[in-house]
Amino acid sequence: xxxxxxxxxxxxxxxxxxxxxxxxxxxxxxxxxxxxxxxxxxxxxxxxxxxxxxxxxxxxxxxxxxxxxxxxxxxxxxxxxxxxxxxxxxxxxxxxxxxxxxxxxxxxxxxxxxxxxxxxxxxxxxxxxxxxxxxxxxxxxxxxxxxxxxxxxxxxxxxxxxxxxxxxxxxxxxxxxxxxxxxxxxxxxxxxxxxxxxxxxxxxxxxxxxxxxxxxxxxxxxxxxxxxxxxxxxxxxxxxxxxxxxxxxxxxxxxxxxxxxxxxxxxxxxxxxxxxxxxxxxxxxxxxxxxxxxxxxxxxxxxxxxxxxxxxxxxxxxxxxxxxxxxxxxxxxxxxxxxxxxxxxxxxxxxxxxxxxxxxxxxxxxxxxxxxxxxxxxxxxxxxx
Length: 385
Ligand code: GLC
Fold this sequence. Notes:
Distance between the termini: 41 Å
CATH class of the largest domain: Alpha Beta
Bound molecules: alpha-D-glucopyranose
Oligomer: single chain
Largest sheet: 8 strands, parallel
Number of helices: 10
Helix content: 25-40%
């Protein structure tokens, strides 16, 4: 679960509102005093995350607007010293720990509020001050909240790796948090890639995590009604598992800290599905060549392949191009499925007329050999399966 929360939630027009509407700093700053989130809102997020089958959370500790959701000795522009009157990062960490979820901190290097945030690109004194400030805040984050699992940087505008002194900064992070993993947005590749709003595996066996929204916005935006369906999210999970990655699915809480009901419903429905089919996602991340099919797609664990059928065709389901002998076919509850296999055409018979699970029904196939599905464009049965 990704959480985008900050002053911008009060305006309700995404987290880039300060930049997109050219709101002057002194006007935007007033949002720091009017923000009065309810106590321990994070507890509801963590419960929802757990219910949804998430294993970790990543919260914005400071977004591009520059407002720190944590108490700091380096700036008063922070949640403890302004409107909220509390350290919201501490609340988040407490809530995540209560649910036994791993903890990630999102931190935007870009800062629209700090006077040196843009000037640092052209003025060495400003750069020195701003980099010291940045490393100082990162140090506070890595020191004051116990064990962290993920450092999730964002937006390294306007400096480059040398300018940010990213190597030094990340060495400090690892020294303070020896088991942490770090994303690739401080300009260095570090531990994992972060495809955003698309699901694409990283080259070279690198770890990766796709971050996605449930509508089209990260920050709370009630005028954005373009909600995804739970079925689409289940499809994303299948796709990230097949590519050996993770999914970081966003919530954009209201200023009070409530999760929009449409988002909560998606998380809950996906959670119900995962409670049943979790093993076909979490543990099924072995690679397998496969091609597009109308009716679904695969994940794999060793010799077991899981066909996630999201468009149920009725009593018979045919899969072309599977180049392995199928030894057994069954529903995920263990019920056997009759099948015939003629060369690379597999047909499952006597299925229910209606989809057993509307989000995606998983059919488990035991196969021999290295699992592989390959169709090509021709239309001849391939005997050499
Ligand atoms: C982009 C956006 C930012 C959002 C992030 C999430 O970098 O600038 O608003 O937080 O993506 O990955």
